[in-house]
Amino acid sequence: MAFRQTHRPADRPAANGTFWYGLDRSILHQSGRVLTGPPASEAFAELPPEELQSLLVDSLHWWMALPSQADDQPAAGADDAVLGACRALVRHRYGRWLSKVDAGRQLLRAGYQPVETIEQSIAARSG
Question: Would the pTM of this model clear 0.90, i.e. be above it?
Answer without folding.
Answer: no
